[in-house]
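Quick start: read one record
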Amino acid sequence: MPPIDILMLKAMHPDVMDAVAARFTLHRLDTVPDPQAFLAETGPRIRGLATGAQAPVDRALLARLPGLEIVASFGVGYDTIDTAAAAAQGVVVTNTPDVLTDEVADLALGLLLATVRQIPQADRHLRAGHWPQRTYPLTPTLRGRTVGILGLGRIGRAIARRLDGFGVAIAYHGRRPQADVPYAYHPTLLGLAEASDVLLVVAPGGPETHGIVDAAVLEALGPQGLLVNVARGSLIDEAALIRALQAGTILGAGLDVFAREPHVPPALVAMDHVVLLPHVGSASVETRAAMGRLVVDNLVAWFDGRGPLTPVPETPWTARA
């Protein structure tokens, strides 16, 4: 059997690169001196692509890879991949769902608690030596709040299950109501924000959700409201959020994702009523290893003729008889 050529757009975890190289002929686009010349010469031989959110796969790149069969993406979100162009080209796209659900849900709860109880700020207060002079100010509470979840998918449901244990009211907004959950459904995001004290964002990125948390939604959330985002920075109108935080339109925010990662607006960094994390929702050793294994397993399963393990809905695949 001739070698199977796999292209990796940017460096991934060493275990992923080693596993791919052990089974296939691995090419790294980020290490070649002239990527365009490489694509012209080697692109037609590429049958598989391994990538992550920081390396977009657009229509132009897909056109340079006419023999491509599968894109194995590292992460549950795949909004940086043009799935419509992939489907039109007959390319299957896979992601890494489920293996990171609990890790991201745990982080979301931690970020929510850190935001409402100001845990990082209290830590800074102690480390700066202020405690002997003055106690840390009283904080808001999670008690009596309604948490609105934008996006009740796998991760949203896992967050809701954890919140059940906190004894808070839970509501949600999504494309449609879900019959098998006991939480209040709101057909509009604005309605969810009006009914909630915390808006927790877990919806997918992409054109449909770009900037949906806008000035009107933040105003509806109100002056005691908190925004927590563990999804994609693109869902938030970042300029509107900064204005809302500066004006006291909302009480505070906890953010793990941003519009132009890894660049965070200085205005957000300067605020003390905002908790900021560097996109670490799934970033534990164990979870990232599991995600990497699923990237490799999707490639291996595909080229073994077993089909993709976790294809995304936009590029459906049906087993051949």
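The first helix runs from residue 14 to 23.
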